[in-house]
Specification:
- This protein has 182 residues and is mainly alpha-helical.
- This is CAAX prenyl protease 2-like isoform X14.
Length: 182
């Protein structure tokens, strides 16, 4: 999933005055974490929301969609349900005057991996492509945006194939002949 954010990560690295590694190191120190865990909004966005949302959407919605749509369609349809479940963020941003409706609409198994991935995505937010077009190093950053999207689509199916992780697909467990069960 992080390859999808190669563009924004490159932009962060280019714009970091002390260097990206210094920023990462500063973000990992104990004082920084002690401030974060006391911030209820940070806890909601980076711990509680990813954990509960990934559980609900991975563990509940996908198994319900697969029998109706098949695995490939379920993978692409489930984000629509996920998006609808996040409409409350639009109301929150409008209430606090953070953005216009147009801006908001434009931007709008094991759980450890998806939860960390979800938390990372919440942290990164929707890529600000508009700011890249004005950036002095826009060619480099746009190259990494494109590379990230390309790598995401190239790696999506191989890295989400259960056999890659030495597991049998769930559908193969459901399709065992009755004689094997008796």
């Amino acid at each position: 999933m992080m390859v999808l954010f190669l563009g924004p990560l490159t932009q962060l690295a280019v714009e970091s005055p002390r260097g990206l590694f210094h920023d990462v190191k500063a973000g990992l120190n104990c004082q920084s974490w002690s401030k974060r865990v006391k911030d209820l909004k940070w806890l909601r966005n980076h711990v509680v929301a990813p954990l509960t949302e990934e559980f609900v959407f991975r563990a509940c919605i996908i198994p319900m969609l697969v029998p109706c749509t098949g695995p490939t369609s379920a993978i692409f349809i489930s984000p629509l349900f996920f998006g609808v479940a996040h409409f409350h963020h639009i109301i929150e941003q409008l209430r606090f005057g953070q953005d216009t409706v147009f801006d908001i609409l434009i931007c709008a198994g094991h759980l450890v991996g998806p939860v960390l991935c979800h938390s990372f995505c919440n942290r990164m937010g929707f890529p600000a492509i508009g700011s890249v077009l004005e950036h002095p190093q826009k060619s480099l950053i746009l190259l990494f945006y494109q590379l990230g999207v390309l790598l995401f689509f190239i790696l999506l199916f191989p890295f989400t194939d259960p056999t890659f992780y030495g597991m049998s697909p769930v559908c193969s467990l459901l399709l065992t002949p009755r004689s094997a069960c008796t």
